[in-house]
Amino acid sequence: MTSSNLFHYASFNTPEGTFSVAVDAAGSVVATAFGGKAALQGRLGRGVRVGDASGTDAARRQVQEWFRGKRREFSLGLSPRGTPFQRRVWAALRRIPCGQTRSYGEMARALGSSPRAVGRANATNPICLIVPCHRVIGSDGSLTGYAFGVRRKQRLLDIERA
User: Fold this and answer.
1) Which position among 56, 128, 141, 145 has the lowest Cβ density within 10 Å, counted as fewest Cβ atoms?
2) Which residues belong to the active site?
3) Can you list the pairs that 41-50 forms with residues at least 24 positions away whose Cβ atoms lie under 8 Å?
4) Domains plus CATH for the chain?
């Protein structure tokens, strides 16, 4: 087992149910999920989890502050695993201001890509909420798919707009 696949994680309650976060040895967030251990493992891939919350305090605190309306942006180290294009899309997601949305087409134009490619990269975002993939919507304003359900996507947007 190498340190590159050794992650610490914690699961905790939020107004949207259980939320889980995994961090690497440097304390950077590598994955998050709505749900417990199994949901998080699905986003980590083959990473090995360590069953303690060591190093997750900052992420847990910031997520809880976000749900209480006391935080609009996250200031955490992030270390998502993905292709260079996926990382470009995920960086663009972080530039969408809290409470606002962008369409897949708008994202694609800004990145010089196609809406389909942006949609695929968005769907593979391993760090939900903190990397706000829920802020991307259809060109007609509809709430298109979200890994954790369209109803949850709507509630996350409602929290941000409150």
Assistant:
1) 141
2) 133
3) 43/126, 43/128, 44/7, 44/126, 45/81, 46/5, 47/5, 47/6, 47/7, 47/22, 48/1, 48/5, 48/6, 48/7, 49/7, 49/8, 49/9, 49/22, 50/6, 50/7, 50/8, 50/9
4) 3-67 (3.30.160), 84-161 (1.10.10.10)
pLDDT value at position 1? 44
Do 120 and 104 form a contact (C-beta atoms < 8 A)? no
Expressed in angstroms, the distance from the first to the final Cα of the chain is: 45
Cβ atoms 31, 72 nearer than 8 A: no
DSSP assignment, residue 123? Answer: H
Q: What is the pTM of this model?
A: 0.93
